[in-house]
Specification:
The chain is an alpha/beta fold. It is 43% helix and 15% strand. The protein folds into 2 domains: 183 residues, Glycogen Phosphorylase B (Rossmann fold), CATH 3.40.50.2000; 178 residues, Glycogen Phosphorylase B (Rossmann fold).
Length: 376
């Protein structure tokens, strides 16, 4: 039986992209091939699927500790468990490993968007990560867009980088649970109709443009259909990576129709999507773009951009606007979906078809194939 060790640094953080990826990947890996023994090394005690073996090395959640965990603890654990392959499910490979290393690079935003590496610590960390990447056996990435970015910017051989699309978890579906609907409506004080944004708050997500667009859409949407922004706002917006969104809302005078509802529990995301009249995601770069796909799987019409991998993911099943984002164009797109029921219905149907093309079962099968390549 083959043995794979996976770095589980983010496993206990399901609200991060890397944490969500790892949780869903582990959920489907063992069911895809029982001949592969999955081990997970984690900095905290956490609950992993029954088919996985957990190894804990208690580590405080600090940048220097994370680096030590990645470069020392993980390779040491690979040797101790006799791993045939070491999988790092985010972009931070060790320089040395007792077995072949596979990494998943979701995107190379630290290179493409340098404002994300303004501090000396981040610049040094990125430089070390780039150097360590050269010694990896195989690289998995989420989209053809990211594949091309990685090959072009990291000086890697094309055949070393493999595109394996992400999927939508089977909890994302149009059918609503009445109990969950009542609970979520009450928890977040949601009206019958609303426009939803759910995702990160980095500047490339273009929330400032969304708020500017809302000044155009608001008079038609009115107070009965607010803009709901879900997620935990950054504690220290710096104007470089994060904007101060509440301040922008105040400056634009749209306080009455914009709601920040804070962090959403993972089990409530499905219902939050399902109840939305429209999901809007105006990002200027994505290595994949999971939120629009999840919204589509829930039967919600989506407005997004054609930037990065988004068009690759949503196909012709979303209302696409150009990038860079123009506030009037984005506002007009939102209005169109609100007022044109035929358009909204068409987007719902096409979204369901498009989202069905992506599954975590296929993600797991593709990942196992890369494990086999590395072992051979």
């Amino acid at each position: 039986m083959s043995r794979v060790l996976i770095n589980g640094w983010f496993f206990h953080k399901p609200n991060t992209g890397s944490g969500q990826y790892l949780r869903l990947l582990l959920k489907h890996l063992s069911s895809a091939d029982t001949r592969v023994e999955i081990h997970v090394i984690s900095p905290v005690s956490t609950e992993v699927p029954d088919s996985c073996t957990l190894h804990v090395h208690n580590t405080l959640d600090r940048q220097i500790n994370k680096f030590y965990f990645e470069q020392v603890i993980v390779p040491r654990a690979a040797k101790q468990v006799g791993a045939d392959v070491l999988h790092i499910p985010y972009w931070s490979p060790p320089f040395k490993s007792p077995c072949p290393v596979i990494i998943t690079i979701h995107d190379i935003i630290p290179i493409l968007l340098p404002e994300h590496s303004r501090s000396l610590i981040h610049r040094v960390y990125t430089a070390i990560t780039i150097a360590a990447t050269q010694g990896t056996s195989h690289i998995i990435t989420d989209s053809n867009t990211s594949h091309d970015d990685i090959v072009a910017n990291l000086n890697l051989v094309d055949t070393q980088v493999h595109t394996i699309h992400l999927g939508t978890d089977d909890v994302y579906k149009p059918q609503q649970n009445p109990v969950a609907v009542n609970k979520v409506r009450a928890s977040y004080n949601l009206p019958d109709t609303y426009i939803l944004y759910l995702g990160g708050f980095q500047r490339h997500k273009n929330l400032r443009h969304l708020l500017a667009a809302w000044t155009w859409a608001e008079p038609i949407a009115n107070e009965d259909c607010p803009l709901v922004i879900a997620g935990r706002l950054p504690e220290q917006p710096d104007g470089y990576i994060y904007d101060n969104l509440p301040n922008i809302v105040n400056e634009l005078g749209i306080n009455d129709t914009v709601r920040f509802i804070g962090e959403v529990k993972e089990e409530e995301k499905t219902t939050l999507y399902q109840l939305a009249s429209c999901f809007v995601f105006p990002s200027s770069y994505e290595g994949f773009g999971l939120p629009p796909l999840e919204a589509m799987a829930c039967g919600v019409p989506v407005v997004t951009t054609s930037a990065g991998a988004l068009k690759e993911v949503v196909g012709d099943a979303a209302y696409l606007i150009s990038e860079p984002v123009d506030a009037r164009e984005l506002g007009a797109a939102i209005i169109s979906v609100i007022v044109d029921e035929n358009l909204a219905s068409d987007l719902r149907q096409r979204g369901l078809i498009q989202s069905s093309k992506f599954s975590w079962e296929q993600t797991a099968i593709g990942t196992l194939e890369i494990y086999r390549k590395a072992m051979s």
